Amino acid sequence: xxxxxLFLIVTAFVVFTACDSKRVYDTYQSMPxxxxxxxxxxxxxxxxxxxxxxxxxxNLRNNNDYPFNNLYLIVEMDFPNGKVFKDTLQYKMAKPDGxxxxxxxxxxxxxxxxxxxxxxxxxxxxxxxxxxQAMRENGKVNGxxxxxxxxxxxxRIENADISKE
Length: 165
Hints:
four-stranded antiparallel sheet, mainly beta, 165 residues, 1 helix
C-alpha cells in the first residue's frame, strides 16, 4: 500500500512538471512580511534566442491578508545595450465581494499576470526585470509603505509559439 501511494505521488509530480513545456524561465522571490514601497524585486536572465517570440508574465502569490481588489506595479525591463522600458500596470486581484482571484486551494492564491506578449529578444546578453509595488489608498497621495499579503513575486517567460507545446 505504501509503495502504491509513493508511486502515485511520483507519477503526479512527473505529469504536472511535464505539462509545462512552454516554460523558458520561471522563478520567484519571497517577500519577508510585507512588500515595502522602496523594495524592488529583480530578475536577471540571458536572452533565450533572438528569433522566437515569447510571452512574459509577472507571477504573484498572495494570501487573505491582501487588503485590495487591485494591484498597481511598476515593471522595468533593462536591455543589454542600456535601453529601458518602464510600465505602470494594473491588475484585478479580487472579485467585488473580496474573494481572491488566482489559483490555489488554500488561502494562498497564485496569479499569472500578463506583462508583454510576443517579445523577441533581439539583443544578445543579460536582461534585467525590476518589479515594484505602486499601491496607494483611495484619496491619499502617499503610497502604501508596507503592502501586506503578497508572499512571493515571480517572473516567467514562455514560448509564444503554440506549436512548441
